[in-house]
Amino acid sequence: MHLDADTDAVGRVADVVRQAAADVGTVGLPAAPPCEDRGAADAISALLMVCEEQLEAVAGLLRSGAALLETARHDYSRAETRAVAGR
Fold first, then answer.
1. What is the pLDDT along the chain (87 residues), one digit of tens a residue?
2. Rounded to the nearest 5 degrees, what angle is found at the Cα of 76, between the Cα atoms of 1 and 12?
3. What beta strand segments (E) does 9-64 contain?
């Protein structure tokens, strides 16, 4: 796959991915509904805990992706500067 991008485009994508990571962190999971069956209540609580961990993992992956994009932005910037300078 070939992708044409400039420094500004890569920076904008990094910003969007960083914002997505922040947005994932604001997702509120519902409280466990009242349940008479203790086993069912424990299962629901466990599932909600796993969901929360997964949301944290997704946010972490998005933050990592944003960091990689920021590195790419710096690399693009250096390459563009060299190209303009004729190196």
1. 666 778 888 899 999 999 999 999 788 888 877 888 889 988 988 999 999 999 999 999 999 999 999 999 999 889 888 888 876
2. 80
3. none
Q: Which amino acid is at 68?
A: L
Neighbours of 69 (CB within 10 A): 19
**Burial (0-12, 13-18, 19+ Cβ within 10 Å), 73:** buried
Sign of the Cα pseudo-torsion (8, 13, 19, 22, in order)? negative
Q: Distance between CA atoms of 6 and 59, rounded to whole angstroms?
A: 26
Tokens matching residue 27: 């997702």
pTM across the whole model = 0.76
Residues 6+ apart with CB under 8 A from 62: 17, 18, 20, 21, 24
